[in-house]
Amino acid sequence: MSGDVKKVVLAYSGGLDTSIILRWLQDTYGCEVVTFTADLGQGEELEPARRKAEMMGIQEIFVDDLREEFVRDYVFPMFRANALYEGTYLLGTSIARPLIARRQIEIAERVGADAVAHGATGKGNDQVRFEIAYYALKPDIRVIAPWREWDLTSRSRLIEYAEQHQIPVPKDKRGEAPFSQDANLVHISSEGKILEDPWDEPDYDLILSRMVTPMDAPDRPTELAIDFEAGDPVAVNGTRLSPASLLARLNELGGANGVGCTDIVENRFVGMKSRGVYETPGGTVLFHARRAIESLTLDRGAMHLKDELMPRYAELIYNGFWFAPEREMLQAAIDHAARAVTGTVRLKLYKGNVIVTGRKSPNSLYSERIATFESDEGAYDQRDAEGFIKLNALRLRLAGGPRDGNVS
Question: Mind telling me the catalytic residues?
Answer without folding.
Answer: 17, 97, 126, 180
